[in-house]
Amino acid sequence: MSCSSRTDSLDADVLSATTAVHTGNLITDFYDDIRELATASWHEPVRDDPARFGVGGALPDLTPAVRRYFAAAEVSWHELGSYRDHRLMLLNLARNPGTNTTKTFASLLIVARAVEFVRQTGEPVVIFSPTSANKGTALRDAVARAVSCGLVAPEQLRVVVLAPAANAHKLRADALSADSRLAELNPLLTYADPVAENVKTLGRRFVDEYAATLHQRYGGHLWYSLDLNNYLIADVGRALFEHAVAPVDKADRHRTHAHAVSSAFGLLGYHAGRDMLERSGQSDPMRRPYSLLVQHLGTPDMVLHVQHGDFDRTRIPQYRLDLGTGEHQQGSDPHFPLRTSHPGEVLDPTFYTRRPATADRMTDIIKRHGGDGIVVSGLECRRRYAQLAPLLTDAGFRVPEDPAAVREWSLMMAFTGVLNGIDRGLVHPTHDMVVHGSGWYTDDDMEPLTGRGVTQVSSAEDIFTCVSAGSAPC
Predict the structure, then answer these.
(1) Residue 450 has what pLDDT?
(2) What is the C-alpha separation between 385 and 15, in angstroms, rounded?
(3) For residue 39, which phi and psi values (nearest 5 degrees)?
(4) What is the largest CA-CA distance in the chain?
(5) Would you give the DSSP letter of residue 439?
(6) What is the pTM of this model?
(7) In this structure, are residues 293 and 267 in contact, taking their beta carbons and an 8 Å threshold?
(8) Structural domains of the chain ordered from first start
(9) Quick one: 337 exposed, middle or buried, by C-beta within 10 A (0-12, 13-18, 19+)?
(10) pLDDT at residue 350, rounded to an integer
(11) Which regions of the chain are under pLDDT 50?
């Protein structure tokens, strides 16, 4: 496929005025639906194998303390300006200052389920999660909130996070690192492997080899929390919130939802919410929005899968070096950056998943309901930066003058993908665009933990030693 003759434009109208804002809580506003879905997904705790332990799907009643705990699940809907006759809307999922990412919602529900298990059984739980960074930050934030709201004692519920050492600059100081006892109970670990995603391999090995020993020696349960449904259920609220504040059935134009993705958990959850609305007759299946997946060159696997049904990287277009500019360029495939500083660029290490297990499911949704995928480069994001800064500022984000101060690029990636997709004819010409604002933080939004509060590990035994240090026989 040849690229559109229309070049990516910086002079087309992007109106920065925010015309409407709606806010809500993505969990408590839809608690009955989420609670029913959770209990249907996990009827009972899983106890037959310590390495496959699960807390079950029960969620606590909405007492005042539980409401305070879930208060971090704030979400907002912004009607922004327009670009080339496409109206732009933002679903801001990054309002929690403790995380600045959409990982807040799933993490709050994961921890709430663990709290309810502890309350019902009296048995302690250690949540364990490999992460690129953001998921771990959100789990730690949720555990700290549960403790501060009095839902659980520090020794009853802990979290152990394993992140790639290369992503340490995205790990932040928090309530768990500020207190020496909480820091010991909730270690933050890094693993220096050249393939960042190998934290999952090491994490699985640790659970398989040591979950039974931890349970026998200390009486607690080790919960490996990477089950897909743990992350889908919270995100059904995205569709329910949209239906409450800006229903697609009442809109005068169809929509495309755009999301910067690694495994597309968020969009899968959104479509699960759409399934609920359509099955109940609350929404017309013919109004189902399209999906636009946005990725970077480091891991373009889902875009490749949507286009070709596989992850074959030989399908990435060949770039040629422009000696005059030092940029690498291509003009054969509009789904990939036209310009980049490097053909294998890692724009944001948050997006590190190769060959995601979710690809078949997401590709099927796009084939059935419509959509596409696009890959963006750092050059393209920086080229759009000044153009998009007023839009993001009006939506409530702090946008530093220097892009080098940005530590989380999800939001800018998504907006860049939308504008580039419009310019290149990859977006339906009559659709309005909804951008899922899944993450945005800068140097001013976080205090990094690099160099302190982080323990480097190289083996499953090392992880066991760190977890054991905070454990006591029950």
Answers:
(1) 65
(2) 15
(3) -70, -30
(4) 68
(5) B
(6) 0.93
(7) yes
(8) 30-56+100-228+447-469 (3.40.50.1100), 74-97+229-445 (3.40.50.1100)
(9) buried
(10) 85
(11) 1-6, 15-16, 473-474
